[in-house]
Amino acid sequence: MEYLSASSVSESDPGGEAELKFWNRLKRAFDKDENGVLYHQYPIIQKGGNRFDRKPDFVLLHENMGLVILECKGFTIDQIDRIEGDTWILDGVTQKTASPLEQARDQGYHLQSYFQRESQLRSAGQCVVSMTPIVALPNIDRSEWEERGFTGPAAPRVITGDELGAQTLRGRLDQLPNFDPLSEDQYDAARAVLSCGQPISGSHGSPPDDPTTRGEHYDVVTTGIRELDMRQQEIGLRIPPGPQQIRGIAGSGKTVLVAMKAARMLSDPDEWAPDVETPRIALTFNTKSLYDHITSLTERYYEQFSGEQLAEADAEIDIIHGWGGVQTGDGVYYRVVNNVEGVDYRTYPDAKSAFPEVEDKLEAVSQEVLDAPKEHLPNLWDAILVDEAQDFGPKFLNMCLESLTDDNRLIWAYDEAQDLGSLEAPSPKNLFGSNDDGNVLLDLSGTYKNGPQKTYIMRKAYRSPRPLLMSAHALGMGLKRDDGPVQMITRQDGWENLGYDIDGDFRKTGSEAILTRPPENSPHPLQDNYPPEKHLTHQSFASKADEIEWVAEQIRKDIFEKGLDPEDLLVIPLSGQRRCGKSNREFVESELAHSLNAFDIELNAVWPDRNSSTANDDKEFERPGEVTLSGINRAKGNEAASIYVMGADSTMEETWRGSELHRRNELFVALTRSRAWCTVTGTTPESAFHSEVEAVLEEVQDEQPTISFNVPDTRDLDHELEEDTADLVDTGLDDFL
């Protein structure tokens, strides 16, 4: 049995004391081993009416009871004058009438309509999940209720205050109308629906029972309903009263949860901004090609929560890039600077000219804004949500903070292992500084009163198969590099935060450490029925021409022999070498397009090269019927079934990207775009990098994959990935009780 509260109800709210009392008693009525999930304030919103009547108070899904909707009312018996049908006539309270049973019934029907979208939850056109509405009255005893004559077949089904003991309450629930128990598959599907998995799910069909081709195996990955785990639901559904950081491993669903949280806030602005007529939200990101994806996610989740289109929301949202401009569209910096007196907007070329020595131009222009008198800085939004926060520096995030209203509701999601620029993890201390006593100015330790955690850590990775993710971490850090790691996590709790078990002592330089990753932290659909050695392959070539020709042939096989669609394939060319007077990416685009053209396969290059016949719009990433070719910056935040990382040996090119640390980070990001398969290619077969890849594959391609390495001297590292986590509060089941 699991429990999740999406509520901000307090005892001072109307009916809040009774509702919280009933929530605590409900949780005691179930055993931990039962198959069920109980939600407090499940976030489906009915517009209109009292703020506290817009959502179902309690939603119970149980394998034996089906769906139970419990509406809790804090009325005393004297406050109920009479009951006429579904309408309760009230006395002595502000509310003149109430229809709690009808309200619960309507909300239950609404949830059943979600269930009926799934084939395994329909039979003869009817929903197989039974639904029972009940009214809970914690402030009324059964004897009082019956003395008023509220009995008989027409009387509403209620649970009274003297029936809240664990055994008595369970007995009342067990007396609900007897329907056939849900099968395991039916319960799992219904639970996935309630987890808010439908907006991110694939087609509603069933995957093949015995897949053989890559296309059929990918159907297993993409078909059917997906389920958000309890931690993801907690993060996505609960609205913090102030700032919040979300740290998640690659593929943990950060972008989904940022969009989900934005939609949740849009659908129920009265919960978090009751005194604001039209709350304003910004959702920002760094990768332009994320625009359509994150907009679509927000729209789908808003419809899930409200039943309406996003344009009908009572709050306003700006889904905008971090920079923005006249040609590129709206952006956070563009919006803020145009509202600051005495500071002019700079395009990227302007900033490049004005700040030639500053690597991060957005940081430089953000500092210009922050240097303006504080009274000139506008409060443009009531909340800002930032995806890909590792790509933004502290100046930009401080600019975001300054553009907020008083609650400082800045919510950012990050994974410093995917950082392509700054090498500092965006912890509160790094971002916002500390006072003279060393205390962080923005404290994100602990929990908000009657609310969510201030910091969440997400260990589970859903996108990439376990061997592939482990390889990405090993190669991204250089754990098996001849000269030792370039960067590494040097704390046991740091590895645990990424979902690994570590056997080793970091105090003993040169000693062996062994990494393992529990299967439950990489719950990939192919984990139990696909050979681990086939997720990641590696090949080196004597020339670039040979590499391109071979990759083109593998793409042909993927499409025409293995059943993948062209848009399921993503090619990421690394390297800074110029070839035949062209940049590496121009050369790869030209030669790969030529090779694929022989197979009648089209190439979609997603970089803004106006001279390229295949380059597309900044906001578009994939095109139906075309293989995607992308640089690493545009690939960030996106994914594909099969990834080809070309020129991976460029990790050793000392003149490219300034540092090996930067090059390793790019390699990590490229590898973790894969949802199923990744092929790593390069030239110079004698390069030590290719030996390193083979050493990693030898260990991760076992049924029980491991990574072994020698503990380095931290003084030899270019970067330690893990900040002090002593004050970070992790989430567990107890946080949902």
Automatic annotation (TrEMBL):
Any one Pfam family here would be NERD
Please state what the protein is called. DNA/RNA helicase, superfamily I
Keywords per UniProt: ATP-binding, Helicase, Hydrolase, Nucleotide-binding
GO MF term set: 3'-5' DNA helicase activity; ATP binding; DNA binding
- Domain (NERD) ranges: 15-120
Q: Which residues form a coiled coil?
A: none
A biological-process GO annotation:
recombinational repair
